[in-house]
Amino acid sequence: MGEPHEIRSGVVRRSRQSRLGLSLRVLALGALLSSFISEHGFRWALLAVAAGLLLVPLAIRQKAPPVAGALWTAPADLIEANAQWPGQFSLMPNSVNWTASTYSRKHGQHDLNLPISSHASINLESGSALMDVFIDMVAPSGERRRFLTRRSVRLRRVLREIRTSEPS
Fold first, then answer.
1. pTM of the model
2. Which class would CATH give 72-165?
3. Which ranges of the chain does DSSP label H, i.e. alpha helix?
């Protein structure tokens, strides 16, 4: 639901959409627990919470810390040779940074820093899942990179700002 983080003066903060999404999930969990308690007793509610807590570590995505001073940042996979490498994608005023996760580093991936100029192009393409978006970048050197991340209105705004602020 929206972008996961927003960086202001070096402090990572949740966006309003992220807080709303988290609040709705907590509300849904509360409704589920109250239905279990009223229907099956307290023992089943504790079992459901325990099962949920066991699934949380499986669902957590490996990523790296965001780059300080980023205009927009989100977890993103680098798509390379039919493989996906987890990391953190950051849009800077003059560059695109991808920080490899610990998993990606163990498998030979390195951090990327691609400059943005009038000769670079960044295109967005919808992914197969509802909230997926591919970011295709062609650096001035001709190097092509493809990233998979979550759809965000703020991402489009930041890309528009970068395009209008760069010199022709």
1. 0.61
2. mainly beta
3. 16-40, 42-59, 102-106, 153-165
